[in-house]
């Protein structure tokens, strides 16, 4: 890659000349001599081979090319300043990245709100979000490739912070034979039907959580696929209410009238890695995840203004 001929300091000098209205004013703002500022801009024009300024009376005015280049240079200088700020924050222990793994059943609306609130406080810290199913969250945490984890399991050896519960309800298509029984549905009724279950993404010891032992079982890779299958009349499943609210409202899915166990409310927990100490950015994100965990899911979300 060809090395740039113009330095960031030269771009900053040109910006000062334009922003402060002239060479003398820029020299005062930069605490430099006027001759030094004039030489810097003249040298830039020579290096670029493009006139950047023209003299109009006693005022230096941008040429058309200078206007385009100056506008682009502002982004360049801003990014360089942000890079220097990030290096300073890292020197003070601020993380460059926080790795978060979340069970796919946890409401994404709460994650969006927490991460949106985190962004203006992040100081350039990135978030790497990963979704897993069931024991897949625990496995990622044990492997040390996540700093934070949200799971519905009690993970041995970790002290989790209790979050809210997520309601799962047993549903099927309105025309499913289970709805035509005309009575409360029993465990024996379910055993003879096709159940759609979600594959555990864990590899070491995958679990059959929620499977009733029915002979007919279809295993799919995501909650969204399960909802699509059941909404098409293929079997029944327990699905998070927050994911199928629209289908329930529009009558595409209907809760099963079970004599027991029609809804489940597993608690979710927030865990942190034991492999390293929590940095300030991770701690801020923990506080935001806990704060927005109790936020109502039906309240419209307003994204924060971008800096």
TrEMBL record:
UniProt GO molecular function: DNA-binding transcription factor activity; transcription cis-regulatory region binding
Domain HTH lysR-type intervals: 6-63
Matching Pfam families: HTH_1 (PF00126), LysR_substrate (PF03466)
UniProt KW Repeat keyword: no
InterPro entries reported for this sequence: LysR_HTH_N (IPR000847), LysR_subst-bd (IPR005119), WH-like_DNA-bd_sf (IPR036388), WH_DNA-bd_sf (IPR036390)
Transcription regulation recorded as keyword: yes
Superkingdom of source: Bacteria
Protein keywords: DNA-binding, Transcription, Transcription regulation
PROSITE patterns listed in its UniProt record: HTH_LYSR
Record-stated family: Belongs to the LysR transcriptional regulatory family.
Name of the molecule in the record: LysR family transcriptional regulator
Organism, scientific name: Pseudomonas putida (Arthrobacter siderocapsulatus)
């Amino acid at each position: 890659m060809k090395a740039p001929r113009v330095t960031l300091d030269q771009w900053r000098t040109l910006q000062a000349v334009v922003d402060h209205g002239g060479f003398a004013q820029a020299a005062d703002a930069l605490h430099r001599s006027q001759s030094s500022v004039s030489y810097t801009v003249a040298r830039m024009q020579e290096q670029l081979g493009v006139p950047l300024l023209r003299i109009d009376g006693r005022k230096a005015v941008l040429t058309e090319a200078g206007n385009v280049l100056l506008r682009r240079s502002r982004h360049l200088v801003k990014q360089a300043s942000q890079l220097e700020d990030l290096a300073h924050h890292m020197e003070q222990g601020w993380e460059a990245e926080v790795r978060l793994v979340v069970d796919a059943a946890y409401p994404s609306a709460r994650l969006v709100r927490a991460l949106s609130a985190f962004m203006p406080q992040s100081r350039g810290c990135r978030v790497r979000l990963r979704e897993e199913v069931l024991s897949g969250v625990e496995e990622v945490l044990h492997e040390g490739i996540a700093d934070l984890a949200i799971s519905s399991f009690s993970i041995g050896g970790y002290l989790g912070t209790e979050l809210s519960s997520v309601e799962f309800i047993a549903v099927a298509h309105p025309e499913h034979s289970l709805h035509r029984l005309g009575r409360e549905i029993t465990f024996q009724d379910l055993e003879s039907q096709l159940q759609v279950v979600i594959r555990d993404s864990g590899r070491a010891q995958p679990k059959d959580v929620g499977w009733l032992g029915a002979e007919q079982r279809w295993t799919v890779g995501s909650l969204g696929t399960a909802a699509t299958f059941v909404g098409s009349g293929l079997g029944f499943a327990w699905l998070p209410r927050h994911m199928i609210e629209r289908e329930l409202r529009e009558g595409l899915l209907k809760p099963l009238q079970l004599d027991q166990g029609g809804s489940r409310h597993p608690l979710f927990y927030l865990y942190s890695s034991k492999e390293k100490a929590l940095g300030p950015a991770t701690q801020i994100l923990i506080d935001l995840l806990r704060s927005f965990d109790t936020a109502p899911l039906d309240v419209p979300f307003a994204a924060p203004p971008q800096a």
